[in-house]
C-alpha cells in the first residue's frame, strides 16, 4: 500500500494550483514579473509532477476545465489585446466595418460604447484591425450582449474560447484513441499552465485556431474531405498561419483529393470575408500585416541575432529586409520537408506540421508566449517534448514589461532559446538512436 502522503500529494497540488491560477488571473499584473514568475513556476512544477504520475484521466480533465472556469470573471492581466476585441465588436454592432477606419479617423462624437477612454487603452490604435472574420464574429457577439459593459463583453468572448478549449480537449482525446496512443498524453495540453493562462485567461485566439485545426485533422483522418476543408477554412478565418501547412496536406492526399479539399477551404474563407468585403479592405489588411511583421519584434531568436550582426556589419537596422528574407527561408524549409516523402498517416502529418511551426517560430521576428500553444497541441501525438519545455520557459519573455520601455532581457532570452534548442537536439539524437519512437520523422 502506498503511503497516505503519496496518495494525497496530487490532490494537494491540484488544490494549490487552483489557488495559484486565481492569484495569476485576479491579482498579478505583467509588470509584477517576480510574482508572475513565482506563481507560474509553481503551476508549471505541479504540472510536470502531475503528468508524470498515474493521474486518472477524468480527474486531470476535470481539474483542467476547473482551472479555466476560475478565470472566467478576470480581466486579462498579461495582454491588452482584449481592448481591441471590444472596440472591433462595438464597431460591428454599430454597423461600422472595423477594417476601414483607424480609431482616430472615426468622426466625433463616437457611436455608443466607443469612448475616448477605450481609444486610449488600445494597444495598436495606429493600425487597422488585424483580426480575421471568425474572431470578429465573436467580438460582435460580446458587444451585442453587453454593448457598454467591458467585463461583460470579456466574459462572453471568454465563454466562446472556453467552449473551443473543451472542444479541443475532446478532439485531441479522439485523435489519440484513433492513433492508439496513451490517453494520458492529453494532459500534456489540458493541464499546461501556458495554455490555461494565455488562451482562457488572456483571451488569445489560438483557442479557436487549435479547435478548428484539430477538427480538420480528425476529418482528414476519416477522409471526410468536405468537412475537413470547411474546418480548415474556419481555422484560416481565425489566423492565416494554417496556410503554412498546405504543402503537407497535399502530401497526405493525392492531387485530386487535395483539389477538393482546397476548393472547399477557399469557398469557406471567401464566405467568411463576404459580409465585411468592401473597397479598400484588402489594402488596409495588407498594410496591417506588413506593419506587424516589419515593425513588431518580440522574444525572437535568429531574427535578433541577424539584426545584431546587421548593426555590426552594415551599421544600420536591417529589420525591413530581414523579415521577408526569413519568411522566404521558412517557406523554403516547409517545401523542402514536404518534398521528402508522402505522409501516410494523420500522425505523421501532425508531426510535419509541428516541425514547420518550430522552424517558423525559430525564424520569426515575434514569438509571443501564446503562439506556442498550437505547437504544443500538435506535438501531443508525438514523443517530442521540447514544446512542453518551451511552454515553461516562455514566461521569461514577460520580463520585458518590468520597465515602461519594454526592454527585453538578453540573458533570459538566451536561457530560453539555448535550453529549448539543446532539448530538441537531444530528442532528435535519441530518436535516431531509438527508431521505435513514433514521431514526426516516422
Short summary:
With 442 residues, the chain is an all-alpha fold.
SSE arrangement, N to C: HHHHHHHHHHHHHHHHHHHH
Q: What is the residue-mean pLDDT, rounded to a whole number?
A: 91
Largest sheet: none
Distance between the termini: 41 Å
Spans of at least 5 consecutive residues with low confidence: 437-442
* Percent helix: 55-70%
Determine Rg (CA atoms, Å): 22 Å
Structural class: mainly alpha
Q: How many helices does DSSP assign?
A: 20
**Strand tally, please?**
0
Strand content: under 5%
The outline comes out as globular
Structure characterization notes:
Helices cover about 65% and strands about 0% of the residues. It has 20 helices and no strands. Helix 1 (about 5-25) packs antiparallel against helix 2 (about 35-50), helix 7 runs parallel beside helix 10 (about 205-220) and helix 12 (about 245-250) packs parallel to helix 16. The chain starts with a helix and ends in a 9-residue tail after the last helix.
Amino acid at each position: 500500500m502506498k503511503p497516505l502522503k503519496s496518495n494525497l500529494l496530487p490532490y494537494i497540488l491540484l488544490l494549490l494550483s487552483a489557488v495559484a491560477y486565481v492569484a495569476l488571473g485576479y491579482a498579478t499584473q505583467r509588470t509584477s514579473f517576480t510574482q508572475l514568475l513565482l506563481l507560474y513556476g509553481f503551476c508549471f512544477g505541479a504540472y510536470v509532477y502531475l503528468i508524470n504520475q498515474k493521474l486518472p484521466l477524468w480527474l486531470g480533465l476535470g481539474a483542467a476545465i476547473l482551472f479555466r472556469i476560475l478565470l472566467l470573471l478576470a480581466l486579462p492581466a498579461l495582454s491588452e489585446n482584449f481592448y481591441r476585441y471590444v472596440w472591433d465588436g462595438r464597431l460591428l454592432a454599430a454597423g461600422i466595418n472595423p477594417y476601414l477606419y483607424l480609431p482616430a479617423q472615426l468622426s466625433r462624437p463616437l457611436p455608443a460604447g466607443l469612448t475616448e477612454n477605450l481609444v486610449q487603452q488600445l494597444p495598436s490604435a495606429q493600425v487597422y484591425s488585424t483580426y480575421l472574420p471568425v474572431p470578429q464574429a465573436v467580438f460582435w457577439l460580446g458587444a451585442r450582449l453587453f454593448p457598454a459593459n467591458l467585463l461583460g463583453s470579456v466574459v462572453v468572448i471568454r465563454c466562446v474560447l472556453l467552449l473551443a478549449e473543451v472542444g479541443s480537449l475532446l478532439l485531441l482525446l479522439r485523435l489519440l484513441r484513433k492513433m492508439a496512443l496513451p490517453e494520458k498524453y492529453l494532459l500534456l495540453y489540458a493541464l499546461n499552465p501556458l495554455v490555461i493562462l494565455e488562451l482562457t485567461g488572456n483571451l488569445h485566439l489560438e483557442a479557436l485556431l487549435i479547435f478548428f485545426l484539430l477538427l480538420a485533422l480528425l476529418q482528414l483522418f476519416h477522409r471526410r474531405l468536405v468537412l475537413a476543408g470547411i474546418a480548415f477554412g474556419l481555422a484560416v478565418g481565425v489566423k492565416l498561419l494554417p496556410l503554412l501547412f498546405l504543402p503537407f496536406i497535399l502530401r497526405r492526399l493525392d492531387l485530386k483529393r487535395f483539389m477538393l479539399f482546397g476548393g472547399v477551404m477557399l469557398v469557406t474563407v471567401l464566405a467568411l470575408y463576404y459580409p465585411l468585403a468592401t473597397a479598400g479592405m484588402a489594402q488596409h489588411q495588407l498594410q496591417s500585416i506588413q506593419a506587424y511583421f516589419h515593425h513588431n519584434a518580440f522574444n525572437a531568436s535568429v531574427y535578433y541575432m541577424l539584426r545584431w550582426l546587421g548593426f555590426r556589419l552594415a551599421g544600420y537596422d536591417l529589420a525591413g529586409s530581414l523579415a521577408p528574407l526569413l519568411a522566404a527561408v521558412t517557406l523554403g524549409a516547409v517545401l523542402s520537408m514536404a518534398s521528402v516523402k508522402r505522409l501516410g498517416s494523420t500522425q505523421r502529418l501532425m508531426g510535419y506540421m509541428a516541425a514547420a511551426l518550430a522552424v517558423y517560430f525559430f525564424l520569426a521576428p515575434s514569438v509571443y508566449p501564446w503562439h506556442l500553444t498550437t505547437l504544443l497541441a500538435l506535438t501531443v501525438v508525438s514523443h517530442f517534448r521540447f514544446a512542453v519545455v518551451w511552454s515553461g520557459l516562455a514566461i521569461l519573455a514577460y520580463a520585458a514589461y518590468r520597465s515602461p520601455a519594454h526592454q527585453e532581457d538578453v540573458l533570459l532570452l538566451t536561457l530560453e532559446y539555448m535550453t529549448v534548442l539543446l532539448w530538441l537536439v537531444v530528442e532528435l539524437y535519441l530518436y535516431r538512436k531509438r527508431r521505435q519512437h513514433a514521431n514526426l520523422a516516422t
